[in-house]
Specification:
This protein has 396 residues and is of the alpha/beta class. The relative contact order is 0.10.
């Protein structure tokens, strides 16, 4: 057989192989092997994990990173309600690492280089946009709907105004522009947004953050080097995570240095060790804590770790002390008990899933102000180390 005949034969064989792939399967990927084939050796023609997936829904949720993570709590309900739909998520590059490996997301796209061209090539049965944000909505409205398709959440009017698409969306919108409504609210973010997305309430599914086994192993190896005592019996139960910062939007969510130092000193005397968790903005705070606290009372987890490394190290803790931050939502995803401190943001909106305590300065009338102030003591200064200590010890 000549070279040309061999080439033709290979082409014919390739066509037959191509036609054998079930490209309408929800798990099919045109650029890499699917998960059942790669990890479990399944063959496409006989795979028992085949799921028809011509229908699709897209979630457009860009930021903030912590909000993106807690919005993953709606994925199980969406899968239950739309079992045959492919779930597509469009987000900001900064939040994408927290959505990687999520078993309920079939396609993940980011706006790193503008609107993803792949999204222009398909139409959706459902587009979900829970944010009343003009940039987010402009992207969401580029997504084409199939005939009979729906949008839930918000859209932009022809005049560029944000328009809620339901009574639940209108309620969420008004909470965003009214301090009085925000302060009076007693519903969680999960219930408020679940209703907006057409999902059953009360909503009790947790956020989803899936760590790779290699990431967990790397975190364990790092801890055994940073804290050799972890190998001792019962040591892990003594490890308390302390998220030391509060992000850049509401820096007043951060608890005081004095409070953090007092708590570390007291609980270290009882045998506990603190894992300091923060980002680049907390570099100075970590240095101050290490200088002010007894030797061996703190382990610095670093302030320049990638998001997934940060998450894997947080997952090592037996309890987490934090403000209203991304770390809180990571802890709830990992079922880690949380002591959460609140001042300028809403305590009611945060769901701890029955594993934690919420603390705020109840004597102040201006709580949940979503602003900065010059009062002294302010809301976070009014939270005493004793109250926090009692809450942490109760969870331990």
């Amino acid at each position: 057989m000549g070279d040309r005949e061999e080439m033709e034969e290979r082409r014919e064989g390739g066509k037959a192989e191509f036609d054998a792939w079930k490209r309408d399967c929800r798990g099919f990927r045109p650029h890499r092997p699917c998960t059942p084939g790669k990890l479990r050796g399944k063959v496409c023609g006989t795979c028992d994990e085949y799921q028809l997936g011509p229908a699709a829904l897209c979630i457009v949720k860009l930021a903030a990173v912590g909000d993106v993570l807690r919005t993953t709590a709606f994925l199980p309900a969406l899968r239950r309600l739309h079992p045959d739909h492919r779930i597509v998520w469009l987000t900001h590059p900064s939040a994408a690492p927290l959505l990687e490996e999520n078993p309920l997301i079939d396609e993940l796209h980011t706006i790193e280089n503008g609107f993803p061209g792949a999204l222009d090539e398909q139409a959706y049965d459902l587009v979900l946009c829970p944010d009343a944000d003009a940039e987010t909505l402009a992207l969401a409205q580029r997504l084409r709907l199939k005939e009979g398709g729906r949008r839930l959440g918000f859209l932009l009017s022809e005049r560029g105004f944000v328009e809620p698409l339901s009574e639940a969306a209108r309620h969420w919108y008004l909470m965003g522009v009214s301090d009085e409504r925000k302060r009076a609210n007693r519903d969680t973010y999960q219930d408020l947004v679940a209703e907006l997305l057409g999902l059953p309430v009360p909503h009790k599914d947790r956020p989803i953050l899936t760590l790779r086994s290699s990431e967990r192993s790397a975190a364990e190896g790092w801890l055994s080097t940073a804290w050799p005592e972890v190998e001792q019996p019962g040591a892990r139960a003594r490890l308390i995570g302390m998220n030391t910062g509060a992000g850049h939007r509401w820096p007043q969510k951060q608890w005081t240095l004095e409070g953090q130092v007092a708590l570390i000193r007291t609980l270290h005397q009882k045998g506990h060790v603190f894992l300091l968790l923060g980002g680049p903005r907390e570099r100075d705070r970590h240095e101050e804590l290490l200088a002010a606290c007894p030797e061996g009372s703190c382990i610095d987890a670093g302030t320049d770790s990638p998001l997934r490394t940060f998450a894997a190290r947080l997952a090592l803790c037996s309890v987490l002390l934090t403000g209203d931050t991304m770390a809180l939502h990571m802890a709830t995803a990992f079922s880690i008990p949380v002591v959460a401190l609140f001042g300028p943001t809403s305590l009611a909106e945060i769901e701890l899933y029955g594993k934690g305590h919420k603390i705020q300065a109840e004597e102040l009338e201006c709580l949940c102000c979503y602003s900065r102030c010059d009062k002294h003591p302010d809301c976070m200064e009014s939270i005493s180390p004793q109250r926090v200590q009692d809450a942490v010890l109760d969870l331990l």
